[in-house]
Design a protein that fits this description.
Blueprint (H helix, E strand, L loop, with lengths): L5 H18 L4 E6 L4 E6 L6 H16 L3 H7 L22 E5 L5 E8 L3 H13 L3
Antiparallel strand pairs: 1-2, 1-4, 3-4
Helix pairs in contact: 1-4
Length: about 130
């Protein structure tokens, strides 16, 4: 199984941190490996403590299901095929800010999770981290 390296995880966090700073938002940024284990994390100065856990859970959720957390959210609405999934796996996060990370061969090697602002900002910062792998 392909896995993210520490060097790659650090590059993802740095790129996401740079984007957050450019946007003027205080974020918690988590990267998990292919096994959904925490590989790298940063909490920007002043970022909400409550978002530490959310950022990690977003990354894990994206890796557990190999799709962006916002997509899982769409499927987990009442009547959806994944309704109530957020109660599984010791709690999932089903709103934007978590995105799988892929290597150049298209294999999923981990995921990023970002929390600390609006879900739109969380997703934008996560996307900046994803771009560091490409």
């Amino acid at each position: 199984m392909a896995d993210i390296t520490l060097r790659q995880a650090t590059a993802v966090v740095r790129a996401a941190q740079k984007k957050a700073e450019e946007m003027g938002v205080k974020m918690n940024i988590a990267v998990v490996d292919a096994g959904a284990n925490l590989k790298a994390f940063v909490r920007l100065d002043g970022a909400w403590l409550g978002s530490v856990d959310i950022s990690i859970k977003k990354a894990k959720t994206a890796r557990f299901f190999d799709m962006p957390t916002g997509e899982i959210g769409k499927l987990s609405q009442p009547g959806g095929s994944l309704f109530n999934i957020e109660h599984s796996n010791n709690g999932l996060i089903t709103f934007p800010g978590g995105i799988p990370l892929k290597n150049r061969r298209g294999e999923i090697i981990g995921a990023i999770g970002v929390s600390g602002s609006t879900v739109e900002n969380d997703h934008a910062v996560a996307e900046a981290g994803v771009a560091a792998i490409a």
